[in-house]
Specification:
Length: 229
């Protein structure tokens, strides 16, 4: 089987949510000389891009997306250790993601995580009921460019404000961007607490996270150029 066929197979298994066969397909691709980064970028990532589009177009729903995510993670369990051993490929950015303190509803967060991971981003998942300090800890320890927070409940909106306040107090705001999402949130509320952006749904959130990281990367590059001059 050619490299293109092996990568297409990985892509299709993710789209189909084939958890059972995804690991073997990843092993087959690696054994055939496909690099770990090619498996991620040209196989698994393309599959999740399609899944994200199908979800946005209401052709896929939560069960299908989560099944596809599981297939992708099953393949990543095979690919990621080899990526570290063989080297090659660099993540376009790091995101700390979690459901804020007081809330345990994480389906939307899990979809965003899956789509970002599939796109090659380094995602630090803090889980559910995450205190503000844990989000900041992720930034400091992992050098994350973006914090992505979600909640479905109105009473826990203040937990998002707390994260924003702590970022400002510790001088991290600006260096680290934030995005919020979930049924209880809105663009208006994002503006009120000083969040950099708001995602109305999972796919929009992913697109905006990518834009935030690209903006930070460009700003850092511009500073570097000025220093060199």
């Amino acid at each position: 089987m050619s490299k293109e066929e092996l990568l297409k197979k990985l892509e299709q298994l993710v789209i189909e949510g084939d958890v059972d066969n995804a690991p073997a397909a990843a092993e087959e691709a690696l054994d055939s000389g496909v690099t770990p980064w090619e498996c991620i970028q040209d196989g698994l990532s393309k599959g999740m891009e399609t899944v994200g589009r199908l979800y946005e177009e209401h052709e896929y729903f939560l069960p299908e997306v989560l099944l596809s995510a599981n297939a992708m993670y099953a393949a990543l369990d095979i690919v990621l250790p080899q990526l570290k051993v063989r080297g090659g490929g660099e993540s376009p950015g790091t995101v700390v993601i979690g459901v804020v303190e007081g809330d345990i509803h994480d389906i939307g967060k899990n979809i965003v995580k899956a789509l970002l991971t599939g796109a090659g981003y380094n995602v630090i998942d803090k889980g559910r009921n995450v205190p503000a300090e844990e989000f900041l800890k992720g930034v400091k320890e992992e050098g994350a460019q973006v914090i992505a927070m979600s909640t479905l409940m109105t009473p826990t909106l203040e937990s998002m404000r707390e994260v924003e306040d702590k970022l400002k107090k510790e001088g991290l705001k600006g260096k680290t961007r934030t995005i919020i999402g979930g049924a209880a949130t809105s663009q208006t509320f994002a503006g009120e607490i000083g969040s950099d952006d708001y995602g109305e749904d999972a796919q929009q959130a992913v697109d905006k996270v990518k834009a935030l990281i690209a903006d930070i990367t460009a700003a850092v590059a511009a500073v570097g150029e000025r220093v060199e001059k």
